[in-house]
Design brief:
It contains one helix and 29 strands. It has 330 residues and is mainly beta. It has two domains: 240 residues, Methylamine Dehydrogenase, Chain H, CATH 2.130.10.10; 74 residues.
C-alpha cells in the first residue's frame, strides 16, 4: 500500500547498525472526541483507493475520505461500510475473517471485529499531522503501525492502546512493514532506508542500499531473498536478507507501489501509470505490462486462483490472470 506524500528526499547512504527501540510515549489513550463517519457515496468504488486485503473469501479495500468497501463475491460487487472517520486510509490488514484494522491520515486507526460490517476508531491524533502508512499484526493482540517522520507504534492489546517507539535516529517516512517467516520483519522506507528485524520487531538493523530514493514496498521471497522497490521504477533484489543488493531492469520509470506472489510462484509488482511487472522465474527478471488507460495502481490481491483485484486512482478493477499471460502491452 502507498499513500503519496510529497517532501524532500535527500541523498543518504545508510550505515548498517543495530538500533535499540526507545519508548517515548508509554501509553496512547483512545481519543474522546466523537468521530465523524465517512459519507456514504454511491460511487465510492470508483474513488481513490489505496490498499486492499483478502482473507477467507472476503475482500476489503480502503482509501480516500475514510472509504472502506467490502466484497464477498470475488470482487464482482462491493458494499461500503460505516466507518467512524473521514480521514484518508492508507493501509488495511486482517488477522482473520473477522478481525481487522485500517490506518491512515490524522494518525487514525480503526478496528473491526465482525468482518468489516462495523468499525470503531481506536486511535486518532490529528494534531500530530503524521499519516500512518501501514499496519500489520502477527496475532490478534500484538501489532505495529508505521508512518511519516519515523512514526512507529506498537500494541499488545489488539489496538486499544498504542506505544510510540523509535527504530532510527532519522525521521524519514516508514512506508511498509511485512513479515518474512519466523521472527523476521522488513520495513521499506524513505531516502533509501531499509530495515530488518530478526526478533519480531524488538530491535532493528538499518541495512545499506545502493539507492537514495524512497522504497515503497518489499516482497520477501524464499529463504533470505527479498525484493525492494519504489520511486522511478527502481527494483532491487537481495539474496542475503538485505546485506547486498542487485538492481533489476523494469523497463519503466513509474513509481512502483505494491507486490504479490501467487501460489504458483508468479510475482506481480504494480505501479503508477498502469504499470504491472510480472516475473515467472522467481523474481530474477520481469516483463512489463502497461494498462491502456495508464491510471495508477496502488495495490493488488488475488481474489481467486484466476482473478486479480487492483485498487488505485480508478477505484477497483478485476483482471483475469490470463490477460497478463496473453499480452505484453494494452
Amino acid at each position: 500500500m502507498v499513500a503519496i506524500i510529497f517532501r524532500r528526499v535527500p541523498w543518504r547512504w545508510p550505515v548498517a547498525a543495530a538500533i535499540c527501540l526507545l519508548v517515548v510515549a508509554p501509553v496512547v489513550a483512545q481519543d474522546q472526541d466523537p468521530p465523524e463517519f465517512a459519507v456514504q457515496a454511491p460511487r465510492a468504488s470508483k474513488s481513490l483507493l489505496i490498499d486492499v486485503a483478502a482473507v477467507d473469501g472476503l475482500l476489503v479495500a480502503v482509501g480516500s475520505r475514510g472509504h472502506i468497501l467490502l466484497s464477498e463475491d470475488q470482487g464482482e460487487s462491493w458494499n461500503q461500510a460505516e466507518v467512524p472517520t473521514r480521514s484518508g486510509l492508507n493501509a488495511v490488514h486482517f488477522h482473520d475473517r473477522n478481525l481487522g484494522w485500517a490506518a491512515g491520515h490524522d494518525g487514525v486507526i480503526v478496528r473491526t471485529q465482525d468482518g468489516g460490517t462495523t468499525w470503531e476508531r481506536v486511535y486518532w491524533v490529528p494534531e500530530d499531522e503524521n499519516p500512518l502508512m501501514d499496519v500489520w499484526f502477527p496475532d490478534a493482540d500484538h501489532g505495529f503501525a508505521i508512518g511519516a517522520y519515523g512514526s512507529f507504534f506498537e500494541t499488545s492489546d489488539g489496538g486499544i492502546t498504542w506505544t510510540s517507539r523509535y527504530i532510527s535516529e532519522d525521521d524519514f517516512h516508514l512506508n511498509q512493514i511485512v513479515p518474512a517467516g519466523g521472527e523476521r520483519l522488513y520495513i521499506a522506507a524513505e531516502a533509501g532506508l531499509f530495515y530488518r528485524s530478526d526478533d519480531g520487531g524488538a530491535t532493528w538493523v538499518d541495512l545499506p542500499t545502493p539507492y537514495g530514493g524512497s522504497f515503497f514496498g518489499v516482497l520477501p521471497l524464499e529463504g533470505d531473498s527479498v525484493l525492494a522497490f519504489g520511486l522511478r521504477g527502481h527494483l532491487f533484489r537481495s539474496d542475503d536478507a538485505g546485506e547486498t543488493w542487485t538492481e533489476i531492469e523494469t523497463h519503466t520509470v513509474s513509481m512502483l507501489t505494491n507486490s504479490l506472489q501467487l501460489a504458483d510462484g508468479t510475482i506481480i509488482i504494480t505501479g503508477l501509470g498502469g504499470v504491472v511487472l510480472v516475473s515467472h522465474d522467481g523474481g530474477q527478471t520481469f516483463q512489463l505490462h502497461q494498462h491502456g488507460n495508464r491510471r495508477g495502481i496502488s495495490a493488488v490481491v488475488a481474489a481467486t486462483d484466476e482473478t486479480l483485484v487492483y485498487v488505485g486512482e480508478f477505484g477497483i478493477r478485476t483482471l483475469p490472470l490470463s490477460e497478463l499471460n496473453d499480452r505484453k502491452d494494452g
